[in-house]
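agent> Task received from the user: take the single chain below, predict its 3D structure, and emit structure tokens. No templates, no multimer pairing.
agent> Plan: (1) validate residues, (2) run structure prediction, (3) serialize to tokens, (4) report one or two observations.
agent> Step 1 OK, no nonstandard residues flagged.
tool_call: predict_structure(input=
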Amino acid sequence: MAKITKFPGPRAKKPVDPNATINVKNPKVEEMMATYTAEKTPQNLNNLMEELVKARVLIPSKLNEQKQPMPLAIKNKDGQIFIPIYTEKEQIPKEPKAEAVMNMPFPIVAEVAIKNPEGAGVVVNPFSNNLIIKTPLLERVVEVEKAKREGKPIPPGKQVKQVKLTEQQYVLFERNRYEFGFLPSKFFENTAEFVDVLCDRKEEYLDELYEESYQQKRMYPYLPEEFSVMALDVKENVLAVRVDMPSRDMGVPSCYRVYFVYDKKEKSARYFTIEKGKEGNLLGEVTADKKHVSHGEAPVEGAELQTILDMM
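)
tool_result: status=success, residues=312
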């Protein structure tokens, strides 16, 4: 009897794991990016972030010695470092070719980005949309997503979907973030260089930094002449720079003035604020570790600097 040989049939294809493929598509995210780019309103930004937190994105990477992928980074003309992410593989440049491409949920990318002390955020599709999302907004995303995972109520003011700011509220929000976050961080990051540039370029530099910190550039409302910068060599090796902030769009808290004080010999620096409070002016301070400290009622304007120097 002839022996019958059975040939195996065609193998069934395994379903593609959506978490492992680089064939990622994000048409809704791209649509929201186009809408936001055309009209940079707070609501359009909220709508975009709602879509991003639900999305998986692609991150070109290099392999370390353990053959583990590490996100690549790019620098802008100011030397700020960003993680480039892409909404689809067609957006990734063919050259230089990445050693690996990771497929990750956007909230995880946000967590990675904010843990990098030298990083300034992420940039989405840098060679087309070139949408920059800076660290403060990524921190909000991470905080909200963490609250959701843990079943905790989302902290007041942190909701992405429900927050709708008027133009006036947005300007005050950005002012608060600049005076108590962005500006002191720049000062402490490289104090000697910061002070040199501030003394050289004065109001123009303060205005340029303020506009840089804005997520929505079109809504930036100020002009260089609304700032006033005065540098004083108050004693040997100690420089104090007084900056008067724009007098409009004041809220609680916001700053009438800030003082940068730098002891060149001791290599110590402090950032003081004259703030608008609920019941009068306050003397405050932002420390190098980003803590906002109150020193009580502010002295009269003519005695502010001497009070600060006595504290030094």
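agent> Step 4: summary for the user.
The first strand starts at residue 56 and ends at 63.
agent> Done.
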